Structures are given as structure tokens and as C-alpha cells.
Fold these 3 entries.
Entry 1:
Amino acid sequence: MQEKVIIVRYCEIHLKGKNRGYFEQVFMNNLEKALAGIRHEIRRPSGRYIVENFDAERTEEIVEKLGKVFGTHTLSVGTKVAADIEAIFAEILRIAPSSGTFKVETNRADKHFPLNSVELNAEIGGRLLEKNPELKVDVRAPACVLHIDIRENGTAFVFRDVIKGAGGMPVGTAGKGMLLLSGGIDSPVAGYMIAKRGMRLECVHFHSYPYTNMQAREKVEDLARILAEYTGGLTLHVVSVTHIQEEIHKKCPEEMMVTLLRRFMMRIAERLSLQTGAQCIVTGESLGQVASQTIEGMTSSGDVVKTMPILRPLVGFDKTEIIAKAREIGTYETSVLPYEDCCTVFLPKHPLIKPKLDKVAAAERALDVDGLVEEAFAGLETLTF
Amino acid sequence: MIYLDNAATTRPDADSVRAAMRYLEEDFFNPSALYKESFSVHKRMEEARRQLLSHIADPAKFELVFTSCGSEADNQALFSAARRGNFVTTEGEHAAIFSSARELGKRGVEVRFAALNKDGTVNEADLLSKVDEKTSLVSVIHVGNETGAVNDIEGLAAKVKKINPRTLFHSDGVQAFGKIAYRMSAVDLYSVSAHKIGGVRGVGGLIRNKSKTLYPYIYGGGQENGLRSGTENTFAIMQFAAAAEKKFASLAADHARIASYNQMFRKGLDGELFCILSPLRASPYILSVSARGLRGEVLQHMIDDAGVLVGTGSACSARNRFSRVILAAGTDEKTADGVLRISFSAATTEEECVSAIGIINRCARELYERTR
């Protein structure tokens, strides 16, 4: 009997006291969702999840998918063997390094196993040293840890490497948010960060066709697809702000284009949130990064949102930190494709850096705000990934 | 839908597609196999080759090597002939030559770019001044794919050879073949493509002077006399030959008719919004204009939504914002930003031109008003 298994360990769920059952169930559902379409079984013995009965050739693919599920702390690919010393040692010998330092670490859930953890560590370690004199034991800082996990049912898992997972909390345990997804580098990272804390996401993207093109739209759909791998599916709402931009361009001071446009985006996002049950708006703003992301700019755009908070998970991040994260989660290459989003046709040469709320409100009075929001909603498209 | 982006590709000629279908259905055989069924396909393919070649060159002196596309033909010419010394080309080349030239530079061949005149043709004095005893290849596009500017490649080839008789002369004839009258003489290598004249995509050709050495670009089973390996695309080749036959038969009449459409656009486009970039002596098949102050791609989207398909010389993209060729002809960025490329085919009708002019004017005016 020899079979591959994947051991999934979770993060902070154990902190959650009486809610723990709920968190574990949501996490389980998310793991199942990530493996939809792939033959497997997931069991939940105490303190971890075990994935079994999958095709060994698909191991890598499964590990990659599970590693992206928020709540996954670490994973290991192991072998299930009979719980007897000979079988365990044979497998240890197979996976042991050929030289360097090591230690054996046993976890004995089945207390009927003839040796206790310390004895089994010593026995297996001793045999390994006999077979391979190049190896050395180092219990404090070994180069390699060989794990033995004695299960209750007469089987044992033997494994070596521990792979880091995405961390965080299971998506769906922390409410729902509406992410403003632009197509740039920041907003997918913001979505990732907030989903990592367990929030389910819907996204809204604003385009200005014909000033922007179909490729730019495609790019946003690609980003949503990448994010969806972490969030277990995603809904994307696409809204045209073309007419809003044209109206601002015609009727308001040039330098207020971005300030006013941001206010419209917030209004639309808030209304969309109320319709879809999202409890907050999430943006990729980072303090001072561009003209509209000053504290005054945020005050101005935040001013129109009356019923929910605006979360800005990247507010204190440097651009380089955001880029590093974008590379890590796999959105960077798509984000830097050179299509424009909110077209530069209307971009002012000198945007307002510190808009004053009363002046912004005064400028806005030239516009039929409700009518424009209504019109934007009429052309709304919704896609699911 | 009115299709005026024929320099990008043309609608395949339906009759020749139907006729060539037999090479996908009953006569699907590999022409290099040895049974008589294959040999018969082989013979017909050789007949097609001779036919295609005779339209622009003497089969006694020149040979046509089938490739998969015009870009491949350009690449083969370049990497075969410019192996040492220096390579001289122009700022007005299609990317198939321009990007290959950059690669050639990385491989250690010196690359020299000749400047363009205001009308988009190559500056002859500048080109000739760059040719010396070490020049292995000169490549000059026959009809520029963005402005339609026509270079006198035979005249240039003769002058280049006067400076250095061993220098080979290549021309990318993709936008010229089947559209403007031409016969090869001093030019050694000439690239053509099927899908710009009613052929299907997937076949092109490199015409070469048989007395000059050409090296393969793709190695393998030794098809095309060892010059281009790979199983022959008989369907596309046979369809190409039939489409070309049709096109060359009406070349002069088409040329005159297209020239009159071109004139209609030059006169009909709103002079307040548009300036004409293509020179008067350009190929009538390509008309490059600029809606100065507007952005070409935005205008293109609007025209598209109104049912007319045209090309553009600028993009809503940080990279490739402006056309390199348009700027090289001395156009300022604001003009380069508004470029539309209107290109015709033998299938274009006068009625289409009349309505397209109306639509393009209306869209440009609307965009102008919306963004003013």
C-alpha cells in the first residue's frame, strides 16, 4: 500500500473559539471549490485536512490550486504507508537527502503504536545514519526534517517538504466587499489583500469606450480571472463612464476631471454594493501615489459614500512593495500590458492635488449627477468568473 | 459593413477558394510523395508557381519560393543575404524588415537606416551614401504599408549595384504585388503575400534571381529545392495562383478605378478635420489621413460602431502610441496621433466609398464636438 496524500494545514482558524466549526466548514467548501473537476477526496481529521484518492500525475496542479486557497497555512505532499516500522523506514530512506543534517519528527495520533514519538525518532534516525554515514543529526537547525505522522487507522503519512500556502482566512468568513478594479497594478493587489482576510469580493470596472479599447477590457477580465483563483469565483460588473467624462470635460474645470470622476465611481460602487449585498467599497489607493490619492482627494471621493466604509488596504504601501506583491500573486504581467483604462484623452495636464470639498461640490452642480449615474447603470454588464 | 482595411487583409476571393477546395478534399495528397496522385498535385502546383511568377518576372531568370507569409519571405531574404558586412534599409519598412534588422544588429551585422522624404519615400541620396564595398544587402519597401508611398526600386537597385555590384537588393512587395504594374529586373529578391489580393492567409513567396545564392531559413525535408522545407500548403498555393490570375487580369482597370475612389476620399473628407498624409503619387490602394487633434484609435472605434472598418496609425497604448513610419516622414506627434489608414481592394465599390466618407466625416465631427 503506497499512495500519495496532500496534507493541508490551516492558519488562524484555531483562534476562533466557538465559531471554529463554521470557519472550518467554509474552508472545506473553498478547498472543494478549488479542486472542482479534479478527482479527489478531502477528509478532516483533527487539526488538518487530508486530500487523497487523486491521480498522482496531477499532484503538482492540485498543490498549486490548494496553495492559493486563503486559510491554507502550509501543505505537504506525503506518502501513505502501513503503520509499521519497516514500511515507514523504507519510505524515509526514499525521501531522505543524500548528505547534510536532518532530524526525524514524529506525530503519533495513534497511541497504540508500539514506540512513542521520541523512540520512533531515535529508531528511524539511527537506521538512517547506519545506511548513510554522510548524514548527520541536528535537532536544532536541521537542513531537512523528515516527518512521520502515525494515524489512527493503521496507516502513517511520511513526508519531507513543507510548502507555504497563501495564508489568511477562508473567503466568505468576513462579509462581502465591492472592489474598484481598474486594470492597473494596485487594485488587484488590494483585492487580494482584502480577500485574504476572508472577504468575498465583487468587482466593478469602469471603461470609457470608444476612448478605451476592447483589449483594455479583456485585460481587466484576465485580472478578474487571476483573482478568482484565490477567491473561489468572482463577479465583475462593467460600467461605462464615457458620457460622465464627456460631461465633466464640457461643464467643469479641467483640473477637476479626476476628482469628479472618482466621485461618480464611488457613487456607482455604493449603489452596486447596496444592490448586491456588499458591505464596503475596496480600492487600491495608496496615499500620495497619484494626484487623486492625496488625503484631500480621498476625502473628496469618500464624501459621496454615505452608507458604508471604504477600505484601502494599500494606503500605507510603497509602489515597490505593491509591485512585489503583484508579482507574487501573478497579476503583474497582466497589469502592465500597455492599454489605457480611463483614457488620457480627458486627462488634465495639471490635476487638482488638494481639492476643496466646497469647490468640488460647487463644480459638480453643473452636472445632472443622478441622471448620469442612472444612465451608467442602464448599460451595466455583469460577468462571473 | 463597409470594409476599408484591405492593407491589413482582404476578403478571400470566393471563386478561387471554391476551386481550390479540392486540394483539401479529394486531392489532399502530399505533393512530394511518389505515387501518381501526388505527382499530379505536384505538377499543378508547379504550374501555379510558374503562373504566379510570370506576372512580374521572367521564369528563365527568376524563381519563386513559396513561404508561409510575407514576413517569412522578408526574414529569409534578410537573414540569408545580410550575413556579413553591413545591411542598408530604410525608416519606412514594414515591421517584418524593421524588427529583423534590429535582430541582425544584435547578431553583429551593422545596420544602416536611410531617412525618408516628406512624402514617405526613401531619400535616395541618403540611401546611396550608406552603401559601400561592405554592403551585403539593401532592402527597400516597394509600397509603404502605412502611407502607400511608392519607391522606385528598380532605379534604386541599379544605382546600388553601380556602387557595389556584389550587393543584393531586396524589396518587400507585399502591398504592391497585383496592385501596381511592375516587372523585376535589377531587383534580386522580392517578397509577396497572398492575402493582400484575395488570397488566403498562410502562403507568401520570395522571388529570387536564380544566379544569386539564397540560403534556407527553415530546414527539414528539402521541399522548394531545399530552400524552404515543410509540406507544401497546396490549398493556399492553388487559391493564391487563381486569385492572382484574376487580379493581374484586371490590374490596370482596378488601378484606375481605385484611384478614382482615392480621389473621392481626398476631396470628400472634411478639410477642417482631416489632412491627407499619403502623397499624390502613392499607391491608390492606401490612403493615410490624419484627424489632427483627435486620436486615431478612438475615431476608429466610433467609425467601427457606425459600420465602417478602417485601419489606424495610433493606438490607445503606452507603447506603439505613434507609428514609427509616420513620424519618420517628418510628421509631428499631434498629427501622427490622429492617423487613419483607409485601404481599398478590387472588391470596393463606389457606393461604399460614398457612404464611408459620410460616416467618417460624421464620426470625426461628433468626436470633435464631444471632446472639445
Entry 2:
Amino acid sequence: MLISNMEIVPGKRIVKHLGLVQGSTVRAKHAGRDIMASFKNVFGGELKGYTELLSESRDEAIARMTQQAQTLGANAVINVRFSTSSIAAGASEIFVYGTAVIVEDR
Amino acid sequence: MENLIFVLVMLALGFGFGRLAEKRHYRSIHQREDSLRHLLVLPDKTPPAQFLNHDSVLVSGSVVISVDYFKTFVASLRNLLGGRVSSYESLLDRARREAILRMQEEADAYGADAVFNLKFETSRIGQNGQQGLGSVEVLAYGTAFIPAAAAVTEASAPQL
């Protein structure tokens, strides 16, 4: 599965558009990390726990999107966009969407 | 009185450690930016013709950076007077550059020579519904172009 945030795929031709595919996940941090984070809010610096959590959830969201694209019979997802929103204290939603297409070598 | 002492101690801690963290972070950013200078990162939507035979893959880098107590305090004073909040500016600058660097590192691991269609996504991670900025998350993503095995020779010296 080819995933790209461009509208075209270099060296390949888009044969068929299969429509929008999306994946999302909502994750919360456990209390321990929240406490560590509030300490960090005094000292400043990177919150490694949160960085990790967010990149894990991003992978999860991409995996769900890929799965959806596979059921449509696509072999690529193009024009992928990410969106993040914090819905409640300590929880954030990662949303990823793109266009499922079938590409073939030019 | 005790509250005042508490606030002053927090301010001092925030100022000291925050400054140290920022200095250290900027040093590492400058160093890594120098070492990744060969990898082009462009926000262009379509690549120039010489990249058309490359393989492409989505790369991303993200970072969550927290404010310190001193920055929050300075920013809340700024809110009264208005104007540039430089304490937050440097925070966001660090976060963006760090995110780009992580994305570049991922692209470099793939053996890519350029990243096109760079996009940013910034979001705020609040602290228990608290006012003001808790920490910021910045995500940078783009499409990395990897020279195909056959095209390595002609693409080894990309010129734009």
C-alpha cells in the first residue's frame, strides 16, 4: 500500500478513484504521565511520553485508513492529511484521511 | 506570604531549567540541521521532472514540547499589555524545527534525497482544562522521494 500526501504519484498513473478513506483514534494518557507532564509544565522541555503516545496513535489511525482502503481494493492512498484535536483533558483525537486510488506503472 | 514564596520559587525554577532546556535544545537543533542540510525539504505540491522516477513514501515527525512556569507567567503579563509574546514564539519555533528534523531523519533512513509537499499540523494539549498554553504538539509530514535503484546515478546530484 502506497501512502502519500501528494496529489500525484511519480512514475505511476491513477487508473481509478475509489473515494475518501479515513481512520481515527482517540487516546488518553494514563495518570502517571499526566502527573509527569504537569511537572514538566514547571521546568519546560519535551514531553517524551506524549510524543510517543501521539505517534503511536498516528500509526494506528494510518493502519485503520489503510485497512479501509484495502477493503475497497485500492493499492494506494494519496492526498493524505492529518488532523489532531484535543477533545477532553488528557485525551486527543488523531484523524487521518485521504483518497483511495488504484495506480499502475506508467 | 507562603503563596508568594511558592510562586517565586516556581518562577525561578521555570526560568532556570526552562532557559537551560531551551539553550540545549537549540544547540542540538542547529547541529542536526547542519548534518541534514543535504536533504531538501520543500512545501511544493509537485516535484520537478527529475524526481519523477523516484519512489515515494509518507514521512512524518512529531514532537510535544511543554511550556515552563516562567514562560506562562511572562505570557500572562503580555496578555495585559498586548504585543508579541516572544516566550511562546521561541517555543513554537523549537517545536516546528524539531518536528521537521525528525521527519528528515525518517526520510534519511529511507535513503531519500528530498521531501515534498511539507505540511504542518499544530495542536494544543491542554492541562485539565486549565487556561493558557499547556504544551504544544507539532506534526510535520510530507512525501519523501527515494531514488529508485536504476535511477541512482542520474539523481545522485539533484539540482533545483
Entry 3:
Amino acid sequence: MLLEAKNVAKHFGEFRAVADANLTVAEGDVIGLIGPNGAGKSTFFNCLAGDTEPTAGTILFDGQDVTNASTETHARLGIGRTFQVPATFEDMTILENVMVGAFMRHPGRADARAHAEKIIEMTGLREHAHLRARSLGTPGRKRLEIARVLATGPRLMLLDEALAGLTPGELQQAITLVRRIHETGVTLVIVEHIMEVIMTLTARVLVFNQGHVIASGKPQDVVKDPLVIEAYLGHGHGKRARKRGPAA
Amino acid sequence: MKEATTSKIAWGWLALAAVFLVYPLVFQSAFFRDIGVLLLLAAISASAWNIVGGYAGQVSVGHGMFFGVGAYVPLMVFTHLGWPPLLGVPIAIVVVLVLSVIVGMPTFRLQGHYFSMATLAVAELIRLLVGTWDFAGAAIGLSGPAIPRGWWDLTFTSELPYYYIFLGVLATLLLVTWQVQRSRFGYYMRAVKAGERAAKSLGVPVRRTKLFALMLSAAFTSIAGSLYAIKTGFVDPESGFGILVSVQMLIIAALGGAGTLIGPLIGAIILIPLQTATNTWFGGGGSGLTYILYGGIIVLLARFEPGGLVELWNTYAPRRWRSGSHAP
């Protein structure tokens, strides 16, 4: 397994943001994490990225315990992440932003630049390469975040609502980009609210609600799960779904 | 397009270097040469501060501690050992490197303004301690060689040799900064300034980057202090470790444009003649004017352009004259 999270829990005082969450990700997988707002998926995601230390449980990456490892160590091992609100380096150009990521595996300036240019080409940011990041709109920033992480040469990419806030046209382009990244051999874990993304890209989905994983499986099956429907639509809707029985 | 901009910038630097080289030959009076020396010293200090404060975004309000150590140690080795002050320069650098690790290691674990507060507190503490330390001349301070024993004492009657020594140091510092800003370390400093969380997620060793930036900055600030003491032949707690010493570096870099190579130089070119003019016109009665001037600049920068004059230029100058990386 590339990533194994066992019984991961995160408490903030009395509040249990995540309770006993388990996840296994094999090399080449595309996994989706979904759930209503405040369900605990982002906290779990931050635990996987090394941004938040779990209260309990263990996280193994390629057999190595990374439960309490720093974010930098995660990046060096090959775990890259994007942020829900893009955290681009505003005063640096697009090329410079991507070079920061490239420097991790290419310490020389010329090497880093060549690698960054390749990534910029792949992510469709070439014509903006010498503009400052602050001049980009939301879709551009999200694309830049993906490019920056790609430049670090990750084996596992954690995408935190990287496709949210895009127009239908931009969304299709972004889905194509994520597919292309997956084809290069990068494993993906995606937190997303847009079901189109989850249904199109992921092979397996984990559904969070109130800190617990309430369902997991193929996206087509999970969306029909009464517990999932209840989590999204509220008490009563799940019961009605159960009465109707599984959809054909 | 980018090559054309780069070439324009290179020509600009060459022109500036030529102006600095001929300045003391054109303006031969001691007054103007003194302004030139003061300007270069201020540019060196501000450029040194700029490494950690401008590029890495860790705003030190107590860089006077490094300047003060750099100023005191050469005069200490002269006073107590009879050595040429020049031999104190490398010793001072070692001392400030240790000092920067002591200040940086605990404070860089935290984010926000803790580093600024710590530098301010430590600089004030050192100033008070030195003011009561007999070995360092206590409140009276220390003096350098009144009569030179040889060229190595670097005691000259003319301003000219100081001017060119200071110019050489400034050129070296700018060259080092230019190399650093193009290297991985330079990119990492700017990433840390822009966002620590995002930088960490890209494998940037944030604490180490901040600490190295502080050490490099402290070493050059110490050299600035040494140059000041060797040229003036005197240092006391206020002129070495005083709050104005720290604030001046910050204001000059911020006025020109913190985090840019040219910014501190522009800041010095504007502020030092202005400061000299107010001191000359108002004499001793206007000694508080420097504080008013600094305060006014802080208010103007905070209100209109925190990025300083370089950023102002990049925003309002004709596009073909801007520095390439700015968005349309």
C-alpha cells in the first residue's frame, strides 16, 4: 500500500473532528473524500498532509510511519497537497512559484527552471509564466497550485477542493488535467463537493459525517446509500430512500 | 522581451555604478564627500537588513545589536590588545553569527510578530548592558587609534579612501545578494515571506531558511558597524546599539522597496541627503526631526504603498520601463 491511515482521530478539546478513520490507498488509485460541511474530511485530509497531528492512530506512507512527521518531510517523501483557498506566492511570477516546488528535487537553478517550464507547459500556464501570481483569477490560481505541487515530483497528490469555483468549461479542462496527471503515475486523493468530479474521476469514495466514515465504496453505489443521503439531506430522507429500495 | 528588460536593468546598474565612482571626484568638498560616505554606510546597513527583513519577510526591529557588536569589537581589540581594529572585524562576525542563532532559534519556531518583538527586546537589553560594562567603555564608549600606526589602522584624514572602501563593500554585498536571490535559498526566502504554510508543503525548510537569512544579514550588518567604528574612530551605546540605528535600516529599505536589490540603495539616496539637510538647517535644535521624518515615512508607506518606491514605479511607470515580472 502506498498510504495507510489506521484509526486516525483528531480531537480539538472535547470536539471530535475525526474519529477512527481508516483509509488505504494503493499506488495508482484515485480516491474521493466527500461529506457535508464540517464532516471532518478536511481535518482528516490535513492529517494525511502532515499539516495537523492526529490525536490517535497511525499513518504510513510506503511503509514509513509519517504520523507525526512535519509537512516538509511529507513533501520530501512524495506527498504533495493543494489548499482549499489557493495559497499562491502572490508577488512571485508563475514561473517562480513553480520553481519553488521544482527546487526540491532539482537544486540547481537551471535544472529547476527547465523542470518548472515543463510543468508549466503541461498545466497550460505557459502564456502567463512571467506574470505575477496575483494577476491570476481563481481558476488560474488553482491550476498554479497543482503545477507547483507537480513540480515537487509527488507520488501522492492530495487535492483539496482544487476544482471548486470553476465554470463548466473550466471544470472540464481541470478534469482533463487531473486525468493527465494520473496517467503520469501519480496517485490521487481528492476532497471535493462537486459530484461530477467525484463520479468522473474517482474509483473509490469515502463519505464523512460528524467525524466518522459512514460509507465507502464505488461512487455509483455510495451515492445511493441511505446513510449518505441522510447525511446530506437530513433526517428522514435516508429512511425514505431505504423504503424505496436500491435504485435500478 | 524579457532579455530586453534584463539588458535595460544591467545598463541601469552600470550607470549607477559610474555615478557612484565619479561622485567624490566631482564633489570634492569634505561636506559632500561626507554625505557620500554616510549614504554608502546607510545603503550597506539597509541592504544587509533587507536580506532577512525584505527577502525573507522577518522584520527585525533590533538589527542595531549586530551593528553595535560590529562597531564595538574592532575598537575593543584595539583598546585592550593594541591590535589593528581591522582584526576585530572577523571576530565580530563570529560573535553576531552566534547571537543570531541565539535570537533566531527560539523565535523562528513561532509565526507573526514574535521575531520582531524579540529583536527589539534583545537589542535594548544589549544596549543597557554595554552602557554599564566597563570593559566596553560603559556609557562613555570606546575610541580607535587617534594617530595611525600604519595603513592597517585604516585611519585617514581624507574621506576619499573611506568612500571607496565603503563602495567596494556595498558592491560586494549587492553582488552576494544578487547571487542569493537567484539561488534556491533566495527563492525559498521569498516563498517563506509569501506564505509559510504553502512553503512547507513544497518542502521548503522554513525555520532553517529564516535562520540562514538572519545569519547572512547579521554578518553584513556587523561589517557595516565595523566600517562605521573604524571610520568614526569612536562608538558609544547609543551610536552602536541605539533604536535609531535599527529603525534607520528598516525605514531606508522599506522606503526604497524591501525585498528588492535596488530598494535599499534608493532609500539611502533619498533619506540620507534629506536627513543631512534637516540636521544642517535646524542644527542641534532640530535633533528630534529625524524621529518625525521616520514617523512620517512609516505613515506614508503604510497608507499609500507598503511595497516602497520600487513597487510604486512598477505600478505607475510606463510599462516598457517596468521590471518585467509585473502583471498588466
